[in-house]
Design a protein that fits this description.
The chain is 34% helix and 18% strand. The protein is α/β, with parallel strands linked by helices. It has two domains: 3-95 and 226-239, Rossmann fold (3-Layer(aba) Sandwich); 105-221, 3-Layer(aba) Sandwich (Rossmann fold), CATH 3.40.50. The strands form two sheets. The chain has a six-stranded parallel sheet, sandwiched between helices. Helix 2 crosses helix 3 and helix 7 (178-188) crosses helix 8 (204-213). The radius of gyration is 19 Å and the shape is elongated. Pathway: Cofactor biosynthesis; adenosylcobalamin biosynthesis. Pfam families: CbiJ. Keywords: Cobalamin biosynthesis, Oxidoreductase. This is Precorrin-6A reductase.
Length: 244
């Protein structure tokens, strides 16, 4: 069975290395998404619209879609699901184990988090990427906002476009362990951490522990509960042991 892996995460890289099915193709949105993939894998780089996905499924003769995108990559997930349905093939979503109960303050949206930040003073360290930076910059006031992002031109451009100074950009490729988080927090001395709860295996727990040990308050943006399959189930699907 030829499968299409929507990648760009450590989960996707681990899956590609472990599955016995080599009749697969991986797509990632940016070059950074190829960093940890095996050299012998067919990888396509670039963002795909729904029409692009439908053409890709037909041209590559894809039989099943396995979605390993980030838990917060809702647009990619919804688009891939629609494309698979239009093509009449199966779609499977990998869901990371949830990690609940973390965060001094928890929010269901970026907008709610931004409203809370408007009332706070001090340095804030963000690990939420670049897509929502403009929303946060709008409530920065006299505070210092520091953003840790992947070192891509696109991410850097988004931050510069909304007025983030170079000194407030940490462009590094993760994953980040406890010690690296502590080192960065001690360097920038933030009072607050704003982060996303991306689930188990994402580095979230190490980051939260580091923030607590550095005396920071944490603002956590939660993702909605998803239905899908765990890692072992996805392996069985790719290898033809389970369908439907």
């Amino acid at each position: 069975m030829k499968v299409w892996i929507l990648g760009g995460t450590a989960d996707a890289s681990r899956f590609v290395r472990k599955t016995k099915n080599r009749d697969l193709v991986v797509t990632v949105a940016t070059e950074e998404g190829t960093e940890f993939l095996p050299a012998d894998i067919d990888v396509r780089v670039g963002r795909l619209s729904e029409a692009d996905m439908c053409r890709f499924i037909a041209d590559a003769q894809i039989e099943a879609v396995l979605d390993f995108t980030h838990p917060f990559a809702k647009v990619a997930t919804h688009t891939a699901k629609r494309a698979a349905a239009a093509a009449g093939i199966s779609y499977y979503r990998y869901v990371r184990p949830r990690v609940d109960g973390f965060g001094d303050m928890r929010f269901s949206s970026y907008a709610d988090c931004a409203r809370a930040l408007k009332e706070m003073t001090g340095t804030v360290f963000f690990t939420t990427g670049s897509n929502e930076a403009a929303r946060f910059q709008a409530v920065r006031g006299e505070n210092r906002f520091v953003y840790r992002i992947i070192p891509s031109e696109e991410s850097l451009h988004k931050l510069k476009a909304c007025g983030v100074e170079t000194a407030d950009i940490v462009a590094m490729l993760g994953p980040f362990d406890y010690e690296m988080n502590v080192a960065l927090f001690r360097h920038y001395r933030p009072a607050y951490l704003v982060t996303k709860n991306s689930g188990e295996g994402s580095g979230f727990c190490d980051k939260m522990r580091a923030a607590a040990d550095c005396g920071m308050r944490t603002l956590v943006i939660e993702t909605e509960v998803e239905s899908g399959y765990d890692f072992e189930e996805m392996l069985k699907i790719a290898e033809g042991d389970r369908r439907g």
